[in-house]
Write a structure and sequence with these properties.
Chain lengths: 280, 324
């Protein structure tokens, strides 16, 4: 089944066309897919995310989420149970004064039995590596830790679709990697559909597919590698290659026969191969 | 102004069950004119340290109620702490902290969340009016606000009467920075100034910091988690871990210590990751670990092989052209 599909969706805040408005969006995300969404600030990425779970309704067009019409208010509750969104700023997402209460908020809201809520808290906290903080106060945690709690709060509802709206932006590299590992595991093992909005090009590389948004439209789509092979086009949308790609591109411009690569391992191999060839 | 810290300790909630020793014997000197980076993973003490720099966190001895304790006989005497910024002694409760704060500007993480006034002009002028010893003339306020807004790259006439909340995220952050630099601080301290921005926004913000460093604030200290950003911008870097400073080095020296950084849970810049893998293969390429610098160094290395050994065959060269 399709997890999310957009047909000719248009949206604008207020009556005027402006920043964040969307223009004729068509997309589909299959269940179990890991899709990255890239784009400059104001390109409409977050608007897209909010349309997926009924936080916003489109001006025109059709949005279907897990077979349900997202424009029909009767489906909103069911859709939100199945589409969890983690936002950028964890401070805006904390509801309780104790970590486990915060994580329990979602499962309590959907009326799960007490024992199940306990299990969900265990699962969600261990998934984000925060078991030791079960009884801590979110206000006393660091930004990165708070964000992991926010993610745990969404995971505890076990949604089918997980949307992360720049959720790694405030984390340090270690925290970011932990979150990425969790998301990848949920995607691979639990077949959770993931829509991953990010400014980190390296993170987008891990996705099955990527969309690039610009001024409210999807301007590029395809496998991340395919998108990053179109570096010049990417630059016109104010995006850049991952740093390894930039190094690789510079070397190619200088006439060294390194293949296009985006991961450190590949580039190291290419440089070694190049050195070896030149040694002969 | 020179920043000098010696044997600095700090604990949150001392004497309670929430006690956390956030700084342990921290010594660091940042010279005037530096573009200084502070790195370390979450909870390593870097924010605690930088909040000391403009007296947001006061050492016990700088607090009003402080009375020096007589050391117990026989107990070891800890080395005396020092915390000085220019001529300000931050361990002395008689220090004029208000004057210090106008000289050391502090930009927090996500400063746009701290905008509050109805217009951009009011927001930017708030600190200026607050720090002034006597009421300022409207003309001088206007000049200062105009200067600050233009320095951060905003059009004064276009934004001054707007609500700061009607601006885009990047613009909001610029307004917030203008509100700090308007008092003409000599030291500018920023906590993850580029966090959450898109790649272009990051580039523009770092360019702004360099512009400020060149002709506005002599010393810039910034916290970052982005090692590529550190490699590309800092003169020196201090690495915090578990409340202590492990290293104070140039980015080039720091990022050649692959294993040490691993042990501290810090990421390497992309170029250093490649350099490390090449090192394991017996190829050593020293560079400043920026993409450009590393590409240059690699090109130089490969060319040196070419000169020595005659280089690629023509057939291979044709192959290159085909690829490019």
């Amino acid at each position: 089944m399709r997890a999310v599909s957009f047909e000719n969706v248009c949206f604008s805040y207020g009556n005027e066309e402006g920043a964040f408005s969307l223009n004729n969006i068509n997309l589909s995300v299959e269940e179990g897919e890991f899709v990255a969404v890239l784009g400059q600030n104001g390109s409409g990425k977050s608007t897209l995310a909010r349309l997926c779970n009924g936080l916003l309704t489109p001006r025109s067009g059709k949005i279907t989420v897990l077979g349900m019409d997202a424009c029909d208010a009767a489906n909103t509750f069911e859709i939100r149970k199945n589409v969890g969104v983690v936002f950028q700023n964890p401070d805006n997402q904390t509801v309780a004064s104790i970590v486990e209460d915060d994580v329990a908020f979602g499962p309590e809201n959907i009326g799960l039995p007490r024992e199940e809520i306990g299990r969900r808290i265990d699962f969600a906290l261990s998934a984000v590596g925060m078991e030791a903080y079960r009884n801590a106060t979110p206000a006393r945690l660091s930004g990165g830790q708070k964000q992991r709690i926010a993610i745990a709060g969404v995971l505890a509802v076990m949604p089918k679709v997980l949307i992360l709206d720049e959720s790694t932006a405030m984390l340090d590299p270690r925290g970011r990697k932990e979150v990425m590992d969790v998301v990848l595991r949920l995607n691979k093992e639990k077949k959770m559909t993931v829509l991953f909005i990010t400014h980190f090009m390296e993170e987008a590389l891990l996705a099955d597919r990527a969309f690039v948004m610009h001024r409210g439209e999807i301007v590029m789509r395809g496998a991340p590698r395919e998108i990053f092979s179109r570096a010049d086009e990417l630059e016109t949308y104010s995006l850049s290659l991952p740093a390894v790609g930039q190094i690789c591109r510079k070397l190619r411009q200088k006439g060294f026969p390194v293949a296009e690569c985006l991961q450190p391992e590949e580039l190291a191999k290419e440089i070694e191969r190049c050195a070896f060839r030149q040694n002969i | 102004m020179r920043i000098q810290a010696e044997h600095l300790n700090y604990a949150y909630n001392p004497g309670t069950e929430f006690a956390v020793q956030a700084l342990k014997d921290v010594s660091l000197t940042i010279e005037e004119g530096e573009f200084f980076g502070v790195v370390g993973h979450t909870g390593s003490g870097k924010s605690t340290f930088i909040q000391h720099l403009n007296g947001l966190i006061l050492q016990p001895s700088a607090q009003k109620k402080y009375k020096p304790k007589k050391p117990k006989k026989g107990s070891p005497v800890p080395p005396p702490s020092v915390l000085k910024i220019g001529d300000f002694d931050l361990l002395d409760k008689k220090t004029d902290f208000r004057a210090l704060r106008s000289k050391v500007g502090m930009v927090f993480q996500y400063p746009e969340y701290q905008l509050f006034a109805e217009t951009v002009f009011d927001d930017v002028s708030f600190g200026l009016k607050n720090f002034a010893k006597e009421p300022l003339k409207p003309e001088s306020i206007e000049i200062a606000v105009r200067n600050a807004l233009e320095t951060v790259g905003l059009d004064y006439a276009a934004v001054k009467d707007k609500s700061p909340f009607d601006l885009s995220g990047g613009q909001k952050r610029r307004v917030a920075i203008a509100g700090v630099i308007v008092t003409r601080p000599e030291v500018l301290v920023l906590d993850e100034p580029a966090a959450g921005l898109d790649p272009l926004g990051k580039k523009e913000l770092m360019a702004l910091l360099h512009r400020l460093h060149a002709d506005w604030c002599r010393t810039v200290v910034f916290v970052s988690h982005d090692m590529d950003e550190v490699a590309q911008n800092c003169s020196r870097v201090a690495v915090f871990s578990e409340g202590s400073i492990k290293y104070t080095l140039t980015p080039q020296e720091l990022f050649s210590r692959f294993d040490d950084l691993d042990a501290l849970g810090l990421e390497l810049p992309a170029a250093a990751k490649v350099a490390r893998l090449l090192h394991e293969r017996g190829i050593d390429i020293a560079s400043d670990c920026t993409p450009d610098g590393f590409a240059e160094a690699t090109a130089a290395y490969l060319s040196s092989l070419r000169k020595k050994d005659g280089g690629c065959t023509d057939a291979e060269k044709d192959g290159e052209d085909g690829q490019a």
